[in-house]
């Protein structure tokens, strides 16, 4: 309910911004266009309320939410483009020592500007909705580790995150993702939460993930995200029982013996926000129980804020997700408000490094400047 209220408030903001800009560029004639925008925005609010109902068929949800997304992103891009032009004209007329005429309605220029910018905005909206969010790419990183043993030299770890199985990510999409990941020939696969996001797919998805166990010689390791809690932990536990997937709930596994043995630990997701810091500390402590001090430690945590806890145990690497990298960026830089302290890519604190995966799927079907990825990490001695 809270999400719907926030979304409705955002739609109202877009509607007000569109009204101001249309009047600035189109004068009174912009009223007709704004009425159309108002109607579509009201339908968008209804669509958000109806589309995210859990009992809704995934196909129906996909059509409704995708349509709403295209329209809302079109408005966002159009508002940004028109506001930039408006400011440019304002400062130009100011610097030219002329009266800053902010309304283009004296000629047809304003109408043409709106039409051209609307076409550009629509193109960006369609590209992010139907093209880039499906453009999976592989990124490779080297992780230097002090005193790494011979058996772990060149050890490869693949990470997937935030698949969000459901209306916008099918089981066939998941199979293709696992196949492409296996083709990279990593030693292990780690999955950092928010995979099982549709109760009707959970059993099949668990079987599918388990069927790829032989393709990752040192195993598959998984930690929960918040969406697993939203969809139901009891069903997930049934789905994962008797599977070869290492379900790390505040626990760890010795993966490989070496002069510095490799341990992979995983923490649960603290759903109580007001208790997050306390629970994160307790979960990490339990997850690290029995891990030798000299071990190479990799912590799987859906929420990136666990970096602060991993530092206390001298973990070499923390792999997380949750943020989706903001889903909107430019040249690798996020273009969204800094809601999260760690949003995308690499961070470090002391000797501990954190990688925030941008995600493979999403419940909001749009990506621009933030492609889904397969992340590969290679351990190297230093």
From TrEMBL:
- Membrane-crossing residue ranges in chain numbering: 6-26, 33-52, 64-88, 109-130
- The coiled-coil regions, if any, are none
In its keyword annotation, does this UniProt entry include Membrane? yes
**CDD domains attached to this UniProt entry:** MPP_YkuE_C
In alphabetical order, the GO MF annotations are: hydrolase activity
Give the UniProt keywords, A-Z: Membrane, Transmembrane, Transmembrane helix
Task: Name the source's superkingdom.
Answer: Bacteria
**Would you tell me the protein name for this molecule?**
Metallophosphoesterase
Q: Where is the Calcineurin-like phosphoesterase domain?
A: 156-325
